[in-house]
Amino acid sequence: MSKSKPHVLILGGGFGGMYAALEFERALTQGAALDVTLVNHDNCFLFTPMLHEVAASDLDITNIVSPIRKLLRRVTFFHGEIEAIDFVHQQVGVSHGHENHCHALQYDHLVLALGSTTNFFDIPGLADRAFTMKSLSDAIALRNHLIANLEEADFECGASLRTGLMNFVVAGGGFAGVETIAAMNDSLREAVQFFPHLREEMLRIILVSSGTVILPELGGKLGTYAQRKLAEQKVEIRSNCKVTAVKGQDVMLSDGTTITTNTLVWTAGTSPHALLAPLPCPKEKGRVLVNEYLEVHEWPGAWALGDCALVPDRRTGEFHPPTAQHALREGQIAAQNILATVRGGWKKPFVYSTIGLLAPIGKRTGVANILGINFSGFIAWWLWRTIYLLKLPRFEKKVLVALDWTLDVLFSKDLVHFRTTRPTTRSAPAEEWTKSA
After folding, report:
1. Nearest Cα residue to 109 out of 41, 43, 32, 44
2. Which end of the chain is more exposed for a tag (fewer CB within 10 A), N or C?
3. From CA 273, how far away is CA 286, in angstroms rounded?
4. Which residues contact residue 240 at a Cβ distance below 8 angstroms, ignoring those fewer than 6 apart?
5. How far apart are CA 119 and CA 123, in angstroms?
6. Interhelix angle for 220-232 vs 175-191, to 10°?
7. Cα end-to-end span (Å), the chain
8. Which H or E run contains 259?
9. DSSP code of 296?
10. Tens of pLDDT, residues 37-50
11. What local confidence, expressed as pLDDT, does residue 436 receive?
12. pTM of the prediction?
């Protein structure tokens, strides 16, 4: 790192942070005089809109991630954890490696793109029992769990446990919850035919939604359509309902019912990153307040975007929604404004309106609103796949995903259970042996 050049430090490699880094990559290719470092706890960029397809065995687990070192050749990459942020001394404490080596990284400009974390709302037992859908490891864990449940339920000794093993609950009626339960429903109903002691009618797949209609972002008409289609696919929908507690394998709901299950997927809440809490800057509900140029109030050289920031919308007087399509454009504008600041140029305000919202809802159907026009059915599903395939970084990954989708039409889904931990060796006493079917 050159001491004579301004140093830009980007914290977080999600949509906002990565697209800021890519904008700097282009500027550095053209000879920009600055040093840029991206810090992220994973060494890959995760394309989160396709997470549910990994969980449902529609896509290979590595096809929705791109190695950061292949995306960035001029921007320095630091693979590690962010420990602390010091606005006063303009430095960030980081650690890395098996031994957690600690470093202090100085900066002239800091981009906060830390994203969000799951909010369990202090619901008793929820954090200990629920699966989440925020990371690749979450999707892999859920995929393995679904297959393991079917394997266990198929044995005679699992007959008494089948209710809990064959009940699957997803909490959250937004995009993440609906896309996850639709993919799970397709996958489980296709997979169950390969287990001789199981039948499709044993499956019970339940979506718990706090709203009257699911997918409220798309409006009542498309939400009602999506709800009807999921019901036709044998998904139970509990509207106007919330999870109130989890005790063992019992999930208690606000309507007074209890569902026995060992599979609860929680997609119903997010919180700003914990590292934001101690920062001495204006915040609202834990998110950093920025101006229209994405600058943090009262702290020159600090910028924030994506889920961890509240970005004002000049046209509505409200704030821009924390979606991927906003975050990636905020990242680009933040990078351009930092370059303008370094060069003494004019900064650009962030101005953007949502182009479209799309969601697959199973059985090659979907719902979409693009430029105010509603689509549903096969065309909406096709639009979702086409648009997100085009947005997926790197040509290599586009080809692999397109190939996976093609093979999914021709062949059934994979049922391989991946072991992600080292196996332990244990010899069971003879009295524990049971005669398998």
Report:
1. 32
2. C
3. 8
4. 209, 210, 211, 212, 255
5. 10
6. 20
7. 65
8. strand 258-260
9. B
10. 999 999 999 999 99
11. 45
12. 0.91
